[in-house]
C-alpha cells in the first residue's frame, strides 16, 4: 500500500432526489473506496433525501490516486442495488497538502490554493476549490 503520509477525511453530507429502488423508497448508504481501503456510512432507512453528516477517514499514501464514491440501496434478502457512482482524482489535493508548509493562512481564515474544473479526472458538476482552512487542506465537492 505504501507509507502513510496523512489521513483523508470525507464528510458524506446528504443525498437529494435519490432513485426509488424498493416499493416506494430506498435505504441508501455511501461507500468510499481508495486503493484497498473501503469505508461506509450508516444506512438511512426509507429515505430519498438522506442526511448522513458522517465523517469517514482513510489513510493516505504518497500516491493517493482516485477516490471512488458509490451510493447503494440496502436490501435485506438479495444483494444491494447500486444507485450511483462518482470518482475524484486526489492528486490536486495531495499536491496542495504537500505545499501546506509554505501557505500562510491566518487562524479562522480560508486561503484558496487552486481551482479544480470538471473533467474526465473527476465527476464534479461545477468548479471546486482546494483551500487551506485552519491549517487543513479542504476541497468541497
UniProtKB/TrEMBL annotation:
GO BP terms in the entry = abscisic acid-activated signaling pathway
Q: List the keywords (alphabetical).
A: Abscisic acid signaling pathway, Calcium, Cell membrane, GTPase activation, Lipid-binding, Membrane, Metal-binding, Nucleus
Query: What is an example of a GO molecular function annotated in this UniProt entry?
Result: GTPase activator activity
Spell out the subcellular localization from the entry.
Cell membrane; Nucleus
Looking up PROSITE patterns in the UniProt record yields: C2
This protein's record includes keyword Transcription regulation: no
- Its main subcellular localisation, reduced to a broad class, is membrane
Q: Domain of life, per the record? A: Eukaryota
Which interval of the chain is the signal sequence? none
What is the protein name stated in its UniProt record?
C2 domain-containing protein
What organism is recorded for this protein? Papaver atlanticum
Amino acid at each position: 500500500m505504501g507509507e502513510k503520509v496523512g489521513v483523508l477525511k470525507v464528510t458524506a453530507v446528504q443525498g437529494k432526489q435519490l432513485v426509488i429502488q424498493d416499493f416506494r423508497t430506498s435505504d441508501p448508504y455511501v461507500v468510499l473506496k481508495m486503493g484497498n481501503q473501503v469505508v461506509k456510512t450508516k444506512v438511512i432507512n426509507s429515505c430519498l433525501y438522506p442526511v448522513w453528516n458522517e465523517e469517514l477517514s482513510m489513510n493516505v499514501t504518497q500516491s493517493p490516486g482516485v477516490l471512488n464514491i458509490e451510493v447503494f440501496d440496502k436490501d435485506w434478502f438479495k444483494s444491494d442495488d447500486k444507485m450511483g457512482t462518482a470518482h475524484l482524482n486526489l492528486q490536486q489535493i495531495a499536491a496542495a497538502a504537500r505545499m501546506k508548509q509554505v501557505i500562510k493562512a491566518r487562524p479562522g481564515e480560508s486561503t484558496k490554493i487552486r481551482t479544480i474544473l470538471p473533467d474526465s479526472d473527476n465527476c464534479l458538476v461545477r468548479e471546486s476549490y482546494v483551500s487551506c482552512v485552519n491549517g487543513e487542506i479542504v476541497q468541497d465537492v
